[in-house]
Amino acid sequence: MKFHSVHGKSVTLTEVKSVASRSELSFCHGIVFSDQPLKVTQKVSFEVKTTDAWSGGIRIGVTSVDPGKLSSSDLPKYAIPSLSKREGFWVCPVSEGIISSGCKVTLYINNKGQLQFFVNDVYKGACLKGLPTGKPLWLCLDLYGNTKSAKFVKADDAPKEILARGPEAVHAYEEACISGTQPVYRTRLMLVGQDRVGKTSLKRALTRQKHNREEEQTVGIDLSNSCSFSNLHDRWQMAIQGDYEKEADMQEEQKQLGILGGVIGLEEEYHKALAENIVKELNQPKLRKESTLRGRAPSRDSAKSGKRPFDLESVKSTSSVHGVIAHIPEKLSHVPPEMFTDVPERVVQLVEEMLDKGREPTTSKNQPKLSKSSSFKRQSSVSKPLVSEATPSNSQDSDKTNIEKKVVLNIWDFSGQSVYYTTHQVFLSSRAVYVIVFNLCHDLHTTRSENSSMDEWSTLEYMDYWLRTIYSHTSQNSTNSISNNRLSPPILVVGTHRNNLSQDEVEQKRLVEEKFDELRTFMMDKPYTRHLITPFVAIENDMEEGEDPQIGELRKMIKEAASEEPYMGEQMPLRWLRFEQEIAKLVAGDATHASYDQIQELAGNVGITDEDEIKIMVNFYHDLGLLIHYGSSGTIDNVLRNTVVLQPHWLVDMFRSVVLAKPKTDKWSFSKDKWKTFEQKGILDDSLLEDIWKKVSMQKPVLLGLMEKFDLLCPAYTQANQRPKYYFVPSRMTSESDVDKRPYSDNTNNAVFYVNFAGFLPDGLFYRIVNRTTKWCIDNSGKEPYCLLKTLARFFLDDEHDFVLEMAPRNFHRIKIVVMRVSDVSETNDSEQTNLSPKPSACAKLRNFLESSLLELKESWMKRLTYYTCVECPCGRPCYLHGDDACKEEGCLHYLDLDECLANRIVCCDHRRVKTTSIKKWFPETHSPVFQGQILPSIDLEESYGNIEKHGPSLPLWVKGAAKLLSSGEENQDWLALAKLMGHKESQIEEFLEDLNPSLALLTDWIITSGNTSLSVDMLIAFLEKMNRDDVVEIIEKANDTNKDPPQVFISYQWDSQDEVKALRDKMEKSGYSCWMDIGQMGGGDFLSAKIDQGIRNCKVVLACITPKYVVSHHCNRELSLADLLNKTIIPIMFEEVPWPPPGGMSLIFSQLVYINMKGVGGHGGTGIHADLKDKYKEIVQKLMNYIVPDLTKYFDTETVISKQFSNDNSSITSEIYSPPIATESAISYQGNPEVRQHHVSFAQQEDHFLPPPHYQVRAQTPVSQSCVCTIL
């Protein structure tokens, strides 16, 4: 924000127009404006400088008149009353005592049209009301009287966690701040690193506790230590006293810790805030008296101020005691008793202490003592006070004092054992200072034998793992400045056991520098380098006497790093702090969780009654990691929605008890087989949980829900409303022990692609992917994984496909995906099996799921996750390392970006140009269906056979061009191959041969008999791509591009319902509405995302095809959000029953809309489901007509048609999609060939070959009325 060039004649602006100064020779002509309008809820802050040479305070207001349309000569001497009398100006006078030199004033307009007013982040009230928020409003200031300048400064935004949750959360936070705020200085100190490198000893050294050479291993996460430090000195105060501290001071120290110091600290934080407000009120009349004694005349503003100050009201409103006057000491007998009404005794004590020190505490920045009146007069344009004449006096700025700020550190000591890493990542936070600890005596490149659980990682690999983990989960810009070159959170690197390197100090120093140089070289150009705080520190925890001086240097570095974090000093609403205090009391009483009703009751006890504010507040503390609550409207599980976990570390212990569970040594146990299954296969029987969680059995539903939420386990398949009998726990999967039982074989027909994670794929991420994949397969098909191993799993995809997820060796950071076409033993033999290739739709379906899951994980858990989908390059580049022309070693393979391959016919690798035909065959291309309405003119196919060109002279050129290329095609790539692929029988092909142009007859027949819509063209393109006829596809696409009108209707759907949606699209296009839908099921990638974005932006109406899977689909939510943001008309169409409005983010969009129900039709009136569907289609068309004018030139007959010529043919006309036979039982095993399913059951139906949909075989058409249907039947 800057000042406008139009201003009063006594005002001068700096070159960048951020500071406006009034001449010291004048007390008026100081009107200035902002250079841009204020947005509703946008905070604007400016710093005020004052002078004692004049009296009278600043005037604050807004105007709906564009300052650019004014001139400096138009501006009056005073804003009040001269300017405020004009239409479109609202100005309020502020008493000079409320703002002193150096104060920061903050303003914002709320949704109710009130101009909210803060001084040094202390709320003073609404200075203007009834403002027209529908008009642009510019800020208007009058630098009058004692105000000599104003400087725009950065406003304190709401915490980033609040901002991330949207405008509603910001509004609730701002409203809560009105009752009073307190700056909060707190963070975490996270100690991470390998096992047994001295993390716990370092914690003891930092907190001045004696070194313990017999220190036990940390189990899970240790949160037992908290401390604080001041910005004025280097001494750290401990919440839990060290051996060097006096234990008698423990309770007092806990009070100094504030919010993270437990119940005592929380209560003290709240009491201090109340006491500070009271002391301000007591100091104001004192300062006024001192001002009068100095000979200064009070301003008329001050003299007329008769209102009770705002701060006292806020104190009363936030007190937890009602109607009680605290005991007032003799020293405070001069204080009006009503000032201590509803005030706890501790607050009175603090007031007495503060007054004895002769100072006034502040809640934010340096704030001098205020004079008598802390209020201002609310002023509207109707009634305005008299303006006092300025009175000269001596000029003197207020002195600034350095205010003490205490930063609270809550120390988290993470266990170094790798088995805990899966749960550790759940609790990483960006609001922390991290210390990576390693042992200087360990070689950086040598593995340690005791770390076999992590594949024997070296020290360097461990450090890299932790640094990448912190970067991926928590990294964010420390400031929004362009010049910012540092990322938050800060990370310090500390080496321990320094004295064990050498007894000689010179040699010791050399060895330390050698280690650190090696680390710097390794970390160079890594993504996490901008987190690192240098220099690295070498310490010794076990000193014979005293403390290692480097420990003091480390404390100083931690202090400086924490103090610079952007969240330090955030203003927290006082009533939210009081809520924290109530939560801390529950935790002190060993409460681990509470119901949401209890949370609402606690909030009500501290004056928080608005349900929206409670929800926002609980979500905020969830984002901070102080609470855990998944209570959004999208949470289906009522138990999870109604539970709030109060102790996150308790949750760590519960997770750990499952991840590390081991059987008891009881020879009479009847659960040995179940424990064996759990240890060998990662399958956890439900009865074992009763034993593992014996002490918390009542919380079992909540714990299971949270473990499922964190992707730590997946329930097995169950019938509706039944409890799972067992669970899959991916982190307990074992390594493959028998290579002969590998769950798949290499086959050239398999579709193989990869997800590359750009250098970082932790085991925990792979486990989460496997867990989500298991749940997806169970939800979609009821099929459980065939095989689960530590780095490999095989799943059921559909009746014809399986797929495998295989994690490459840890140095390569990628997942291999293998999609294989499978058949049943009863249908084919091994030789036939080898010729089966997976269908493109199956590969696209799987890719869509994987990329959607990774995107959700990125947004909710791993913010800096980087990945891309790729394929192995088929160029055959020679390998000089192994002397092989097509080396298949993992380290010798190179890859091509899959999106680039699908978007281009030729790509280049380092070796040569590569045709992408062999890669494209696995995935269907996405085409923009710009062909609109009727594709070809009406032709009587029966009469035109023999000479299609003569009877169809108006056929488009692209059809003729495509036919010409097909006529000259090679064997298996000409029109004959296309006809067979389409499913035409020999008798039909012979009829095409009788035509003078058989390829043109084939294309015309196909388009007209398959509906004559753009869907017909899309299907034709799919066939041509299977034949690798890119030249024909190119002709069709060029003709497609010449149509300039974008589709009018965008169809948003989840592609499991694609068959029904295709029918909907076909009906709409036949009614004259052009449609866009992702017919190809590309399932991800930048290419498809761009097409979807273009389709939504260009359309007029969005048809949302609602199913349960649509509601939870991340892609569908994004499509609908974009459509809503662009104000597109949305028509919801329910294909499967869901609650209305659907739970989750869609509820906000759908709540005011009426849906069209495509289910619940048929079974009445004799017409059945087909007639009812026809009525539903008509209803959709009628709704579309309200927003889109159909192109009647492209409207054509939509009645059912049947061929006279083929009425006696064996095939019948139907809209049903062919589906392969389904087994009556799901028991499947693999013997011999892994691509063949062995079923021990019979099939209700068996076919020797694939029967294409019957309408592929129909050519001539004749309209049939409804009465004919009965005759045919």
Automatic annotation (TrEMBL):
Q: Name one GO biological process term.
A: signal transduction
Q: What is its EC number?
A: 2.7.11.1
Which UniProt keywords are listed? Answer: ATP-binding, Kinase, Metal-binding, Nucleotide-binding, Repeat, Transferase, Zinc, Zinc-finger
Biased segments, Low complexity type: 369-384
Which branch of life, at top level?
Eukaryota
Q: One GO molecular-function annotation for this sequence?
A: kinase activity
Indicate the segments forming the Death domain, all copies.
974-1040
Residue stretches of biased makeup (Basic and acidic residues): 289-314
Electron transport as a keyword of this entry, yes or no, is no
Boundaries of every TIR domain copy: 1045-1189
Q: What is this protein called?
A: non-specific serine/threonine protein kinase
Q: Name one Pfam family in it.
A: Neuralized
Where does the Roc domain start and stop, copy by copy? 180-565
The answer to whether the entry has keyword Repeat is yes
Q: Which residue stretches belong to region Disordered?
A: 289-316, 356-399
Q: Where is the NHR domain?
A: 1-155
What's the catalysed reaction? L-seryl-[protein] + ATP = O-phospho-L-seryl-[protein] + ADP + H(+); L-threonyl-[protein] + ATP = O-phospho-L-threonyl-[protein] + ADP + H(+)
Q: Membrane-spanning regions, if any? A: none
